[in-house]
Amino acid sequence: MISLRKLVLSFSLLTSCFIAPAYAEKGDQDKPVVLEAEKVSVNDVQQVYELDGQVLLTKGSILITGEKGNIKVDPEGYEYVDVQGNPESTASFRQRREGPANEFMQGRGQTVTYNAKTELLTLTGDASLKRLHNMQMLDQLRGWKIDYDDVQQRYKVSPPANAKAEDLPLARAILSPRRKATLEK
Predict the structure, then answer these.
(1) pLDDT tier at 26, thresholds 50, 70, 90
(2) Into how many domains does the chain fold?
(3) Which structural domain, as residue segments, surrounds residue 117?
(4) What DSSP letter does each residue of the chain carry, written as one string?
């Protein structure tokens, strides 16, 4: 029987082989952050922003939604975003990709965290992540936790800490053949 750790490691390595060479929209780095919510609390000294109720964060092509959110800006100006959904709706993330026209990364989970410095997106709690081209799905991942490293071009799907082998499969991926995806672009 395959151990859970080996399964997750194998899946992580496998999915890193299928990533197309397109990166997040680089122009997003220089765009202002626009925050909308029912309540916004700003601590300008500590560069911390708390959002509550129908959160909408926009930065260039990045769009993050949820019910509650925290944003911290480091001294270099990089944002660290943490947005949560609620029991009725999940938090979501969407970003246009550099390169092919009309290509997006789109995900959802109970929690969406995004580190603008490392370009690491983490979706936690019944998470899903899709790579779309012309609104057609190319790749899709589902699992408890998904990490997407845009710099390294890698996906990683992890099970909950208390997962048991009999709960398998804990992760699922649908990956388009690279040749077909490349020809369609």
Answers:
(1) low
(2) 1
(3) 4-184
(4) ---HHHHHHHHHHHHHTT--S--B-GGGGGSPPEEE-SEEEEETTTTEEEEEEEEEEEETTEEEEEEEEEEEE-TTS-EEEEEE-BTTB-EEEEEEBSSSTTEEEEEEESEEEEETTTTEEEEEEEEEEEEEETTEEEEEEEEEEEEEETTTTEEEEE--TT--GGG---EEEEE--HHHHHHH-
